[in-house]
Amino acid sequence: MKSDYEEIIEGVSVLRRVSAGRHEEVCEALHSAFTAALKGSAVARLLEPRSSVQLSPGTLLRPDLALVTAATGKLWLAAEIVSSTDHRWDTVTKKELYETAAVPRLWMVDPRYNNVEIYHGSPHGLALQHIYAGREMLVEKLLPALRLTVAQIFSQPPVG
Question: What is the domain count for the chain?
Fold first, then answer.
């Protein structure tokens, strides 16, 4: 999806624009790594970029990357690539919505700083587990085949 798209928050429609360039390159790198890691897996399914995911009645988001359980189709991991032009929407609003929906994993991928924040669901909401950067390996013990460094996601240096 490379055109404008709609997200719905508690029944209110919000028109979003796809960030071009680096945002899409990062999205493609993530999808490529997850596709490889899930090859032959019957546990989870990777959705197309910005596929519709209903978090609750009246709330529909389109994460940059969505991994759902194969058995239930329920969102298990969402990754949002932070847009420099819409930072608050990605890092505050959407994070709160994922937390309210009790999504087990959230990745905030930030091309501005070439880092990835990993959150895990807990009884008290989403808890920051680690901020990965540089050559650190992104790990998810429930996806042992995922072999990806932060540097592999960000093929170009940050702007600014």
Answer: 1
